[in-house]
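Order emerges. As here.
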Amino acid sequence: MNPEPVRIREIRPIDAPALRRFYGSLSPESRRLRFFSINAGVSEADSITFCTTDHDHREGFVAVVEGRGGVDEIVGHLCLEPDAGSGSTAEVAIAVADASQGQGIGRRLLAAGLEWAEREGISRLIATMLADNGRIHRLLLGCGRPSRARYLDGGIAEVSIGLGPAAMAA
């Protein structure tokens, strides 16, 4: 449990090294659930990509605590990537540090992402996950927006979250 207060903020290009450390520190199981495979974390190029958003079409949020020397330590990450086939749909993905799970950090990151997506006119968020990732299923389906899950082949599931006025009318 982190004794420091957790802040949610937009990701910045300067966060790339901290984001790489964050993903490298996740347990193999957490990385499997986030990336669908066990890996060593994200590459330097991937961390730079995650941290270089335009804040109009791509966005990212981090949950941070103050680390040594006043430098932010990342304990959670949410990224929103536009769907190439639709200007009104974005993909969402979330990861929270193992020691920080179950403390509402994922919920706070998702709330920031939902607020941004609605402000940008996105009508739907899509999350693709392993079907056995119960925590993310509960988080996304319990976000207070119209949502539905469907199970795809190969142990993969997808959750769709409706946003904006059209979703509220449905």
In short: The beta strands are 7-10, 59-66, 72-82, 89-96, 124-130, 147-151, 156-162. The chain has a mean pLDDT of 87. The helical segments are 16-25, 28-35, 44-51, 105-119, 134-141, 164-169. The longest strand covers residues 72-82.
